[in-house]
Amino acid sequence: MEKVQWVPWWWVAAGAGGLVAIGAAVPLSPTAVALGLAYLVVSTVLLTVGLRRRGALRFGPANAVTATRSMLVGLVTALTVAALEGAAGEGAASTVLFVTLVACALALDGIDGYVARRTASESELGARFDMEVDAFLLLVLCVYDVRFVGWWVLSIGLLRYAFVVAGAVLPWMRRTLPPRYWRKVVTAVCGIALTVVAAQVLPPEANLAVAAAALLLMLESFGRDVTWLVRLNLSGRALVSLERASTTSPPPESR
What we know:
The protein is mainly α and about 260 residues long. About 75% of the residues lie in helices and about 0% in strands. It is built from 10 helices and no strands. The model is unreliable at about 240-255 (pLDDT under 50).
């Protein structure tokens, strides 16, 4: 088990190498590199803790795919910080590199679940790992797109974290949500929409429309889940008592 806990750190090493390679192509400030590495280290520490708590004996191929996607998110994070600082400029090279890395991360999002099912390696930790990587990638994309459509676009990436905060304040918000493939569809569509905005291939008005459509989709998805939780709480308070809710850990189908 000790060996399994060290496996994710190989992706941190790969991410560090990726940052060095990117720095040779486009300028990355020390802050950009530090924040890219910070994401890789913090996310890997959390994953390692999860592996230890669950007594995992193997990392699994699906987790390897998600870890690769998480590594790409670390690189995208560094490029986003550099772009906001102006260190990477607005050149075509940095934009193409950013969009390419994001596109690879989005493509891998459609692979890890398939790999998990094909190899019978599905797990609660793997689903949670996948979900958190999705959420952070959306947030980073929103931060990158602020320059093109305005600060309001951050609401797309912050909705997931607002949901988590709401669950900390209202225990009944931590109830198990019913499986719904639409959540994955919305996340994927929003990721693609935000990437299109980042690529700057559309007129400013079209970028606004695309980002606004992504926000509406995300609000619909979260709104449906919140409505379901509210109805469950109102119709069966015994099922969502504070005592039971406070001792229930977030399952794979939780937000």
